[in-house]
Amino acid sequence: MPYKFIYISRRIYFMGLLGRYMMINAQTLEELVTLENDDLIEKIEELNQDMENQEYDIDKLWDGLHFLLTGVSASQPIEGNRLSEAIVGVNVLNSDDENVDFVAYTKFEDLSEIITSLKSIDISKLKKLFDLSKFRKARIYPDIWRDTDKEELFDELVHGYKNLLNFYEKAFNKKVHVIVSIY
Question: In the record, which residues are listed under signal peptide (predicted)?
Fold first, then answer.
C-alpha cells in the first residue's frame, strides 16, 4: 500500500516516507508555489532528475532527527524553531489540502539562522540524553528504535545531522532556496 503524508494545520501525519532536500533558484521556487499537489510532485520529481539541483536524501531519518534535536516528532513542527524548520522547512505548500504530499520550502534569507541553530548543537550532550524508549513512546517514524541498536542509530542520526548541516551551508554559499519533500 502506498504511504501518504498528510499535512493538517501545521501538524504532519506520516505513513512510510522519505525525506529529501533540494537546492533551487528563485525562479523555480516562484513556479513551485503556484502548483497544486500532483503537478507540484511531478515538477519536484523532474527537478530531482536534473543534476544541477543539488539534493540531500535523509531517507527515513527525518522524524528521528527532528525528535533528537527538538524533543518532539516532526508530526508536530515547531513554528519559529529553527531546528524544527531545518527538518521540515519554513513555509508549507498546499497546506489548505489535507490529502497532499508534504512539500515545504526555506528561503535563502532563513538559512543563516538555521545554520547557526544547527551549529549550536552539542553532540556529546545529545548522546548523553539519547533515550530510545522516548523515541518509542513518541512513536517516532520509522519503527526502528531498539535498544540493541542504540549506538548504530545514534551514529546514523549524527551522520544525517552533519550531512544536513553541510547541505544547508552549501545552499547558503550558493544563495539558493531549499525545497523539503517528505513523501
Answer: none
- Distance in angstroms (rounded) separating the CA atoms of residues 49 and 40: 15
- Domains of the chain in start order, with CATH, are 5-182 (3.40.1760.10)
What is the pTM assigned to this prediction? Answer: 0.89
Residue 97's pLDDT is 66
Number of alpha helices (DSSP H) and beta strands (DSSP E) in the chain: 8, 7
For residues 36 and 130, is the Cβ–Cβ distance under 8 A? no
> Nine-digit cell at 136?
518509542
Q: Hey, CA dihedral for 128, 20, 95, 114, is it positive or negative?
A: positive
Once rounded to an integer, what is the mean pLDDT over residues 163-181? 99
Q: How far apart are alpha carbons 167 and 163 in whole angstroms? A: 6
pLDDT tens digits, one per residue of 68-82: 999 999 999 999 999
Q: Find the helix or strand (DSSP H, E) in which 178 lies.
A: strand 177-182
DSSP per residue over 13-70, as a string? EESS--EEEEEE-HHHHHHHTT--HHHHHHHHHHHHH-TTS-EEEEET-HHHHHHHHH
